[in-house]
Amino acid sequence: MAVSSDNESRITLFQSIGLNEQKARETLKNQEVTRLLETNISEARKILSGETQISKSIGNLLYALATKSKSQIHNLHHYLLQYICEEKIKNELQLTAAIQYLLSNPTEPVDRKALEENAGIGVTVTPEQIERIIEEIIADNKPQLLEQRYDFSVGTLLGEARKRLPWADGKVVKAEMDIQLLDLLGPNDRSAKSTTGKQNTTKPPASKAKPTATTNNDVQENGNIKSFSDLAGEALNFHKTGENYKTEGYVVTPKTMDLLREHLKTTGGQVITRFPPEPNGILHIGHAKAINFNFGFAKRNNGICYLRYDDTNPEKEEEKFFTGILDIVKWLGYEPYKITNASDQFDQLYEWAKELIRRGLAYICHQKGEELKGHNVAESPWRNRPIEESLQLFEDMKNGKFAEGEATLRMKCVMEDGKLDPVAYRIKYAHHAKSGDKWCIYPTYDYTHCLNDSIENITHSLCTKEFQSRRSSYYWLCNALDVYCPVQWEYGRLNLQYTVTSKRKIAKLITEGVVHDWDDPRLYTLTALRRRGFPPEAINLFCARIGVTMSQTVLHPDMLDACVREVLNVTAPRVMVVTEPLKVTITNFPSEHFIELVIPNFPADESRGSHKIKFDSVIYIEKSDFNEVHQVCFDIIHEKPAKDYKRLAPNQPCGLRYANYVITVQDIIRDSNNEPIELKVTCQKATDQGIAKPKGFIHWVSHPNKCEIRLYDRLFIHANPDDPKEVPGGFLSDINTNSLTINNNALADDGIKNSKPFDKFQFERVGFFSVDPDSTNDKYVFNRTVSLKEDKRAS
Fold first, then answer.
1. Are 596 and 614 in contact (CB under 8 A)?
2. Which site from 13, 312, 432, 491 is most exposed, i.e. has the minimal number of CB atoms within 10 Å?
3. Catalytic center residues
C-alpha cells in the first residue's frame, strides 16, 4: 500500500531524532503516539532555540515520553520537555520517575522541587561515586564473597547498589561491579554468561579464561584452549555460506540464485573474510578488534581470511605502513591466507566502471568537491548526459585530459544516509606505491570495496558501524553489475577513553612534539602498545572479553590493563629492581666474598627456571622501605614502630627477600640536608635461634645493573579529549604534562642480563616492565607496562 506524503514527512521527522526507519513506520501505526511525538519534537525545537537537529539521546527521551505518558498529564509535558532539553533528565529511569510523580500530582501548580527530588532530576552520578559505593558494598559482603566466590548472588549486590545509587546508569554500575569483583576474586572459573544470556556491551563479566603462552590468539579455560573466535562466535548469528538472501536487507535479483550457486561451486561453502586496512597509518587498538573478529570468525568456521590493503588513496600511502600492518597482524598471532591489494584489480574495476556507464547507471560530473560535501547535495546538472558522452569523458579522465577536481565519475544511487550519487572515480596525479604512474584516476572506497569483496568471494564482509550507511550502495553496485554480492555485517567499533586514534590527530601530536613517534608508549597504536610491553595474548584476550556488539563501545583503559596484568602475571619472570636506591652496608657480613643465590623466576612454580644474583656486604634498598621516627611509621608514645608498618625502621628489623637474613639498623649516615644516604646495619640468619620472625621482607639488589625506567601515565587529562563539550580548547589543550617520567637511578639484579627488546619482567613489588628498543649494551631501558594493581584514582 502506498504511503502518503504526510506520513513520509513524519518518517523523515522521526528519523531526524534517531529512530530507524522501521521504528518510525511502526510509530505511525499508533495515531496518539504519532501526535504526541510530533508535538514533543516541535516543542523541543522551540526550547532549543529553533535547532532542527536534536541529539539522539534527547530524541530517545522524546520518544519515551510519547509512549510512556498518560493522557491525564499531557498538559504538564512542558515541565518534562524543559528538563529533557536541558539534559537534566538524562535517562528513562529519571523520566519514568518524573511521569509517576506527575500522575500522583496531576494538577497545577507543580511543586518543581518535589518533582526534581522524586525523579533525581539534575542529579549527576560521577564515576567516583559509583566506584566508592561499589567498594563499600563489596567490603560489606567480603567474607561471603571470598567463601562463595562467583556462586554468590551478584544480583544481591546490584540490588543494594540500585538502592544507594537510584539514578546511576545501570550498565556503568554493572561494569564497575564486574571490575571490582575481578580484582577481588580473580578470573571466574565457571560460565561467564549474564543472567539474561545476552552479551553485556559495557563491561563483560569476568571470564574464566586464563592466558597461556602457547599461541597469541588463544586463552585457556579449564585446561582447554579456547580462542577468541569461539568466545566471539557464540554471540553471532550470521548467515550460512550461500544463504546470503536470508539476511535482512539483502537484495535479490533474477540473477542472484545463479550467482550464489556459482559462488558455492568456487568456494566449496568455505567461510571467507578479509581484514582491509588503509596503508596510510599505523594500526590502533580499535583495529585489534577488527583483526580478531575477521581472522577469528574465519578460524572458528574453518575458513580463511585475506589481508587486503585498501590502497586507493596514493597520496598518503607509504611502504612502511604496508609492512607495519602485516607485522602487527602476525604479532597478534594471525597468518593471512593471502595478501592482496585493492589495486590488484584496478584494470577490472576500470572495465566495470565503463560497463556501469553503458548501463546508464553512472555519469561524468563536473561539480566541485565542495559542492559534493554533506548529505543534501543537489542533483547534478550532468546526471542525464548521454552515455556515449560519459564514456568518452571517462576515457579522457583516464588519459589525463582533466585537471584534478574537474571531473568525477558518479553512480546513480542513494545511500542509506540519504547521500545522492556517491563518487566512484576521481582524478589524482599521484604516484601509486604498487601501480606506479599507470593511473591518474583512482576508485573510491564506495566503488572499490564491495567489488573487491565480490572478486575474492568474501562470504561475510565485516565492518564497523559507521559503514552501515553504505550497505545499500554496496548491494546496489554488485547487483547493478550482475556480480556475486557478499553480505555486509556491521559491528560496533572499539574506542578507549583518555586517547585519540585519528591518524591526523596522532600525526599532529608527533609534529607538535607531544609524543615522539607512532610507537610512543603513551599512544594506543598497536606498535606503541607493543613497545610499552603489552603482550599480544593480552590484547587478544581483551578483544575476547569485550566480545562482539552491534553498538558503539567506549571503554576505560583499565579494562585492557587488567587483561595485561592477567597475562603477565603468569608469563613475566620476577626480578628485583630498586627504583630509588638507599645504600645499606652490612657491618657483620658473614663472608669475605659475595654469596651467590639462586632465585626462581616464578616463585610460585620453581620448575619454570631461575637466575643467579649476588648477596654482598653492600646492598641497595628502596628509600621508601626505610622510615625514621615520624607519625607514619612510629608510635611516639610507646617508642616503637606503628603496628601497620612492616618494613625497616630504627628499632624494627626487616627481612631481606630470598637472602634468609634479617637486618637491624645500627647507624644512619646523612647528607648536608640531613637526609639519609646510607644505613649501617647488622644481619642475622632468619633461622637462628632466638631471632624473632620479622614483620615484613623487602627487596634489594647487590652488585646491581644500572638502568633507566620510563613511567607512563595517561596522555590526556579528560576521558574524552575529542569531545568539544568536555575539552572546549581541543585535544592539544588537554595534554597531561606529567605523562612521562624518566628515572635514571634504578638498579636491577642480574635477572635482566642478556635481555632483548620487548622482553618482559615483573619488578617485584613495583610493577610489570618491558625492555625498550633504546637499550644498549651499557644501559638497559625499561618501560613500565602496567602497575601491579589497578590505579584507583578518580577516572
1. yes
2. 13
3. 278, 493, 503
Q: Minimal CA–CA distance to 110: which of 596, 121, 151, 500?
A: 121
Which three cell numbers mark 205? 563479566
Residue 793 — pLDDT band, cuts 50, 70, 90? low
State the pLDDT at residue 163.
Answer: 86
State the Cα–Cα distance between residues 264 and 282, nearest whole angstrom: 36
What's CA 340's distance to the chain center, in Å? 27
Who contacts 641 (Cβ-Cβ below 8 Å, separation ≥6)? Answer: 633, 634, 635, 649, 651, 652
CA 73 – CA 80 distance, rounded (Å): 10
CATH topology of domain 1-119: Helicase, Ruva Protein; domain 3 (1.10.8)
DSSP class of residue 556 equals: -
Alpha-carbon distance of 23 to 18, in angstroms, equals 10
Q: Which helix (H) or strand (E) covers residue 443, if one does?
A: strand 441-443
**Model-level pTM greater than 0.90?**
no
Cβ-in-10-Å burial (0-12, 13-18, 19+) of 641 comes to buried
Report the 10 Å Cβ neighbour count for 114.
11
Specify the pLDDT at position 52. 65
More confident residue, 545 or 703: 703
Helix, strand, coil % in the chain, rounded to nearest 5: 40, 20, 40
At 224 the pLDDT is 34
Burial state string for 485-521 with b = 16 or more CB within 10 A and e = fewer than 16: bbbbbbbbbbbbbbbbbebebbebbeeeebbeebbbb
Q: Give residue-wise pLDDT tens across range 42-75.
A: 888 888 886 668 888 898 899 989 888 877 678 8
d(CA 154, CA 185): 13
Q: Residue 323 and residue 743: Cα distance in Å, rounded?
A: 34
CA-based nearest residue to 182, from 571, 537, 545: 545
State how far Cα 265 lies from the chain centre: 39
Side by side, which strands form the sheet with 618-622? 618-622, 581-586, 676-685, 661-670, 654-656, 697-698
pLDDT in tens, 127-158: 888 989 999 999 999 888 888 888 888 888 88
Q: What is the dihedral of CA 18, 22, 24, 28, to 10 degrees?
A: -170
Fold of 127-185: Arc Repressor Mutant, subunit A (1.10.10)
Determine contact, residues 269/302, Cβ cutoff 8 Å: no
**Residues whose CB is less than 8 angstroms from the CB of residue 592 and which lie 6 or more positions away in sequence, other chains included:** none
3-state DSSP call for residue 238? coil
What are the pLDDT digits (tens) for 384-424? 999 999 999 999 999 999 999 999 999 999 887 777 899 99
Contact 442, 428 (CB under 8 A): yes
Q: Which CATH number fits domain 503-571+708-748+752-787: 2.40.50.140, 3.30.70.260, 1.10.240.10, 1.10.1160.10?
A: 1.10.1160.10
How many percent of the chain have pLDDT more than 90? Answer: 55
**Sign, CA torsion 400/402/404/409:** negative
The whole-angstrom separation of Cα 673 and Cα 61 is 64
Please give the single-letter amino acid code of residue 770.
Answer: S
Instruction: Spell out the domain ranges in the chain.
Output: 1-119, 127-185, 503-571+708-748+752-787, 581-596+615-704
Rounded to 5°, the CA angle 218-223-227 comes to: 20
Residue with cell 552520578: 125
- Whether the CB-CB separation of 457 and 267 falls below 8 Å is answered with yes
- From the CB of residue 369, how many other CB atoms can be counted at a distance below 10 Å? 11
In one letter, which amino acid is 340? T
